[in-house]
Design goal:
Blueprint lengths: L1 H27 L9 E7 L2 E5 L15 E4 L2 E8 L6 E3 L6 E4 L3 E5 L9 E4 L4 E3 L5 E3 L7 E2 L10 E4 L4 E5 L7 E5 L2 E3 L7 E4 L2 E3 L8 E3 L8 E4 L1 E3 L5 H35 L2
Antiparallel strand pairs: 1-4, 2-3, 5-20, 6-19, 7-8, 7-11, 7-15, 9-10, 12-13, 13-14, 15-18, 16-17
Length: 269
C-alpha cells in the first residue's frame, strides 16, 4: 500500500507540474495581444479492484460498496479560454479589434497550417515594403485575403464591416482598398497552438467558416484598437497558490508512505 501511495503522490506531482507550467505561461503572456489563457484538465488513473460491489454472500446479501484503490492522476489536456479580451488603444490606423468570435486569417507555410492559412486574434497590422497588410510579428504574416494599399495613399481606416478605406490626395472620396474576412470554428478550443499568436486548424476544431465582419456570429471590427490578453492575473495568482498547496500535500503523502515503509523494514530486525 505504501508503494501505491508513493506512486499516486508522484503522479500528482507530475500533473501539478503541468498545471504550474501552464499557469506560468498564462502570466508570462498577460500583455500579449490576442492571447487566450489555458487551464489544465485532470483525470484519475486506473483502479485496483479488491472487492466488487453487488457480490452476494452465502445468505444472498449483496455487498453495497466495492473496494477500489486508485493509482493517481494525470493531466488530460489543456483547454483554452476564448472569452473576449479587453480593448486597448492601438498604435496605427490598421490596428483592428474583433468584437465577437472571428479570427483573422494570415498566410503561413503549407507544412504549418492547413492550406497555408493560420488564424489569430492579434490585430496589430502594418504595411510591408510592397504596401501589403501584414501582421506586425516576427514573421510579418500576410493578411488573407491579401490587401494592398495604394502607394499614393496618405491615410487609411477600417470600418466595422472590415472594409479598409484609403485616402488619396486629389480625390475627395476615400477609395476601397480591400475587405477583411474573418473565420469562425465550431470548436475553437480544438485549434492547435503554434506560437507567435497563431492557431491552425485541426481535426478537433472542424473546418473554418469564413465571411465578412458584421455577418451572423462573425463579430465586427473596431479600427484603431487591439484585443488585449484575457489572462486575469488575480485568478492566475490564486491558481499558483492552490498548486503550491497541492504540491505540499502530495509531498507529505510521499513522506508518510516513506515512514510507513521504514517502519515495516524495522519489523524484520
Amino acid at each position: 500500500m505504501a508503494i501505491i501511495a508513493m506512486q499516486s503522490a508522484a503522479s500528482g506531482l507530475r500533473a501539478l507540474n503541468t498545471r504550474l507550467d501552464v499557469t506560468a505561461n498564462n502570466l508570462a503572456n498577460v500583455n500579449t495581444e490576442g492571447f487566450k489563457a489555458s487551464r489544465v484538465n485532470f483525470e484519475d488513473l486506473l483502479y485496483i479492484e479488491r472487492a466488487q460491489p453487488g457480490v452476494e454472500n452465502a445468505n444472498g446479501d449483496q455487498r453495497p460498496t466495492g473496494l477500489y484503490v486508485g493509482l493517481g492522476v494525470r493531466a488530460a489536456g489543456t483547454q483554452q479560454d476564448f472569452s473576449q479580451g479587453p480593448p486597448i488603444p492601438g498604435n496605427g490606423p490598421l490596428d483592428m479589434y474583433i468584437e465577437g468570435r472571428g479570427f483573422f486569417q494570415v498566410q503561413v507555410e503549407n507544412d504549418l497550417g492547413q492550406n497555408g492559412i493560420a488564424y489569430t486574434r492579434a490585430g496589430n497590422f502594418v504595411l510591408n515594403s510592397v504596401n501589403e497588410v501584414v501582421l506586425a510579428n516576427s514573421d510579418g504574416r500576410r493578411l488573407q485575403p491579401s490587401i494592398t494599399i495604394s502607394a499614393d495613399a496618405d491615410d487609411f481606416s477600417v470600418d466595422a464591416t472590415g472594409q479598409i478605406w484609403e485616402s488619396i490626395p486629389g480625390q475627395a472620396v476615400p477609395q476601397l482598398a480591400g475587405q477583411v474576412q474573418l473565420a469562425i470554428f465550431i470548436n475553437p478550443t480544438g485549434l492547435s497552438q503554434v506560437g507567435t499568436n497563431l492557431w491552425v486548424e485541426s481535426a478537433a476544431s472542424g473546418t473554418p467558416i469564413t465571411n465578412n465582419p458584421g455577418t451572423l456570429n462573425f463579430g465586427t471590427i473596431r479600427g484603431g484598437m487591439l484585443e488585449g490578453s484575457n489572462v486575469d492575473p488575480a485568478i492566475e495568482l490564486i491558481e499558483l497558490i492552490r498548486t503550491q498547496r497541492a504540491f505540499e500535500m502530495n509531498s507529505q503523502s510521499i513522506q508518510a508512505a516513506d515512514e510507513t515503509l521504514r517502519s515495516i523494514a524495522q519489523l524484520r530486525r
